[in-house]
Design a protein that fits this description.
The two termini are 21 Å apart. Strand 7 and strand 8 (84-88) form a beta hairpin. The chain folds into two domains: 13-136, Jelly Rolls (Sandwich); 139-236, Jelly Rolls. The protein has strands at 3-7, 13-16, 20-24, 42-50, 55-61, 65-72, 74-79, 84-88, 91-96, 101-107, 114-121, 131-136, 147-151, 159-160, 166-172, 177-181, 187-195, 198-200, 203-205, 210-214, 218-223, 228-236. It is built from no helices and 22 strands. The protein is an all-beta fold and 239 residues long. The strands form four sheets. Strands 1-20-17-22-15-13-14 form a seven-stranded mixed beta sheet, with no helix packed on it.
Length: 239
């Protein structure tokens, strides 16, 4: 029997630092909710807006897979591995922090917001050598279907991480239905509605709602309006 959990957008944690507005699906920094610690190995899902010219100063990470998905604007990244780069909508960035890295993220522009999703996944290997990667995706490949953007394999589509996880993005016309088949037994899927609205197994999901489903092999998602954009994050449910 499948299990599900619904996280409505307005139940997320909110940190508003003036220059940063961060909506947090799971406990993070000053937002602590014992019922919202993680979904399997998915530890952080932050929906961030950063003011023009502002950003996160240099700070450390270790033993975490960190994925950034820009939604709007340009995010400038610098790290202790020597990478200096900009990511924008259509790109996906991954950092395997491993034994430890330092990095900073700033809004490159002085005249517009940057909006991005910051996602942390617990790795299945500890203390690996740190690694950085980013790719630009062909957004046409997600029209009315799910485009794979992340997997466990360097030889597969998208970026890869040290975990048996698969991420997909899709943009759908109204009333379009897609079936998702779980890749690995024991995994669950966390669904996040970036734009528009959708229904899964009778559950209606609105803008920025999150929905976890596990103990199932497949499920169907139907978009309820045009330009509905959906992120699927399939992850192991056991740590």
């Amino acid at each position: 029997m499948e299990n599900t959990i619904l996280h409505k957008a307005n139940t997320r944690g909110l940190a508003n630092h003036g220059w940063l507005e961060s909506h947090q699906t799971f406990s993070f920094a000053n937002y602590y909710n014992p019922e919202r610690m993680h979904f399997g190995v998915l530890r952080v899902l932050n929906d961030d807006k950063v003011d023009a010219g502002m950003g996160f100063g240099t700070h450390p990470h270790d033993n975490m897979e960190i994925i950034s998905i820009p939604l709007e604007g340009d995010l400038e990244h610098k790290d202790s591995m020597g990478n200096t780069t900009v990511i924008k909508n259509g790109d996906i960035q991954v950092i395997s922090a491993g034994t430890g890295i330092f990095h900073s993220e700033f809004n490159k522009n002085k005249d517009q917001l940057v909006k991005f999703l910051q996602i942390w996944v617990y790795p299945n290997k500890k203390n690996i050598a740190p690694r950085y990667d980013q790719i630009t995706l062909n957004k046409q490949q997600r029209k009315n279907k799910f485009q794979q953007i992340l997997s466990p394999s360097p030889d597969d589509d998208g970026v890869w991480i040290h975990q048996d996880a698969w991420f997909h993005l899709g943009t759908f016309d109204q009333n379009n239905s897609s079936e998702y088949k779980v890749k690995k037994a024991g995994n669950g899927v966390y669904v996040f509605i970036i734009n528009g609205s959708a229904s899964i197994e009778g559950q209606k999901l609105g803008l920025r709602d999150g929905f976890g489903i596990w103990d199932t092999q497949k499920f169907t998602i139907t978009s309820n309006e045009d330009a509905t954009e959906i992120l699927l994050m399939e992850v192991p449910m056991s740590m």
